[in-house]
Structure formats: C-alpha cells, structure tokens
Design brief:
It is built from three helices and two strands. The mean pLDDT is about 85. It is mainly alpha-helical and about 150 residues long. It is elongated, with a radius of gyration of 25 Å. The chain has one domain. About 5% of the residues are buried. The chain starts with a helix and ends in a 26-residue tail after the last helix. The chain has a two-stranded antiparallel sheet.
C-alpha cells in the first residue's frame, strides 16, 4: 500500500510542476530547442508515471497484500467441498472473482489518467486567453466598468 500511495503522491507533485510552469509561461513565448526537449522529456516522464507506474503499483498491491486472486469469489457458485459462496450469496448464474474487481480498478485508473491528460492539454492550449487575465479593479476592490456601460 505504501508504494501505491507514494506513486500517487509523486504523480500529484509532477502534475503540480506542470501546472506551475503553465501558469508562468506566456502563450506567445518562443521556446528554444533545448527548452522544448527538456519539457518533452518531463511530459514523457509524467505520462510514463501515470500510465505505467501507478497502475503497476495498484496491481502489485492487489495481488500481494490484498490477496485478490482468481480463486477468491466475490460472487460465485457454492463450492461443494467448502460451502463458500463468496461475499454475496444470491445464487447468480455467473462468477465474479476479486481479480476481475482488481482489473476494473486498473481500468478506472487508466480512465482517470486519460481524462486528466485531456484536461491538462486543454489548459495548456488555452493558457493565453483574455478571460484568464485579471479584471481591473478600483482602489476599493470593485471591478471597473467603462463609462456608459452601466444602467
């Protein structure tokens, strides 16, 4: 569990670095070749961590400490030699093992990573919009409006 939680914490720190750099980089900045290669390497490392390390740590934790094996049933038939029906004893005509749940959680991790990937790229592309600029305010903190625009 420690390795899985640590991998998530490291991912959040890496994403914080991307967000910090996005906020301080103007949209019209011309990147040098070296800056572009450095940032591309950093992004590759973040994607490798999100799509490789975090799901691997989840699968390793589920296999070892949680003991989610294919012979442990969450929903399943009664086993004649043990009488074990799993946690849910509804007599359903299919079996669901803990390994299936483990793999579904891995799919959810990949889905969250993909959604976060799309959101981060969109934020990067829209970093220079005028809507993000702070609105001018008076010395009392109220927003300024142009003359004749008020009612």
């Amino acid at each position: 569990m420690v390795a899985f939680v640590t991998s998530i914490v490291v991912l959040l720190i890496l994403l914080g670095g991307v967000d910090w750099y996005r906020k301080r980089t103007p949209a019209d900045k011309d990147f040098t070749w070296g800056e572009a290669m450095l940032f591309a390497t950093y992004v590759f490392f973040v994607l490798w961590w999100a799509y490789g390390v975090v799901p691997h740590q989840w699968l390793t934790w589920a296999d070892s400490e949680l003991n989610w094996r294919p012979d442990r049933y969450l929903i399943g038939p009664e086993l004649p030699w043990t009488g074990n029906k799993g946690i849910v004893e509804w007599g359903l005509p299919f079996t669901m093992t803990y390994q299936v749940i483990r793999d579904l959680v891995a799919v959810v991790i990949y889905g969250i990573a993909l959604g976060g990937n799309v959101v981060m790229w969109r934020q990067w592309q829209e970093r220079g919009n005028v809507d993000d600029a702070p609105k001018p305010t008076s010395e009392y903190g109220r927003p300024l409006i142009r003359e004749g625009a008020g009612t």
